[in-house]
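[INFO] parsing input record for Acyl-CoA oxidase, partial
[DEBUG] input buffer:
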Amino acid sequence: MSAPTPDHPLMVKERTGSSVRPLQLAYMIYGGREAFERMKEIQAEMEAEPVFDRDDRPFLDHTQRYLRSAEKMARFHNKCREMGLTDPQEIAWAYVAIDEVLPTDVHMAMVVPALRYQTSPEQREAWLPLATSFRILGAYVQTELGHGSNVRALETTATFDRSIDRATVLL
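[DEBUG] output buffer:
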């Protein structure tokens, strides 16, 4: 037996008899009516972008999905910039709307927060604008040889350039 659809008479009856008011609950979860409306506005604008359509996703092979996610990544970050999204919460709402794993996920989920919360004010001033504007990209480096992502096969060289006081990493 399959689950009842949202318009099934039993579902309608249960919802009608419930003391839970979904809209009021949504306002509470999202921090008020204004925040909820802003979230819906952001998501509607993102979902209107043709590149974020997911209808053909089940039919794409690995290479096609990778290329599509790179295309979506570029459009996602450009769209956030066009919309003036700088608040991490608003960017998170936009990200939920596209429903895709992006090549910049580690950068946004790990590197930017590390720069935001684990650096000195001077370091934040120097590095955070570069990271949030994608002028620099950070990555998570896996060094455990027993990990399932074939880390053993990676060959990496890091070279420190004193003239620019930075390292260059080649994979």
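[INFO] The chain has seven helices and two strands.
[INFO] shutting down worker
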